[in-house]
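Fold it.
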Amino acid sequence: VQIPANTTFTGDSTPSIGLAATLTDSQALINTGGFAVILLVIFAETGLLIGFFLPGDYFLFLAGAICGSGNLEIGFVPLLLGTILAAIIGNFTGYAIGHYLGEKLFKKDDSRFFKKSYLERTRTFYDKYGASALILGRFLPVIRTFVPVFAGAV
C-alpha cells in the first residue's frame, strides 16, 4: 500500500489527506494558519453560506486553550476582539448577501426546493421575533450561518 506524500497523521493515527480533511480538523487549522485562519473560519461560519460545516464552537474553545498555553502568536485580548469583530463583519456580510439575493428570490417562480411561501413565512417569523431570533441564532450551530442571510432576504 502506498501512502500519498501529502498524507499527515492525526493524534489517533488515522491518516488525513489534503485540504478536505484539514478543514474539519481544528487543531491542524490553527497550527497551519494561526490567528488569520481563526478569523477566517469565524467570518465564514457567520457570514458565508459555505461556513456551516466548519467546527466553530470547538474551534473557538481550542483557539482559547492554545492561546492560554502561549502557543499562539497572539494574546488573549486580541484573540477575543478579533473573533468578535470577525463574527460581526460576517453577520453584516451574510445580511448583505441575503439582501442582494432576497430581491431576486421574491421575483423567482416556485420550484421544487424554493417556494415564495417559505420566504413569506420567514418574513413573518422575523417580524414577530426579529432581534431575539438574531441573538439566539448565534448560539445554534449551523443555524448561525443562515440567520443573517435570511434576515437580509426578508
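The chain has a mean pLDDT of 75.
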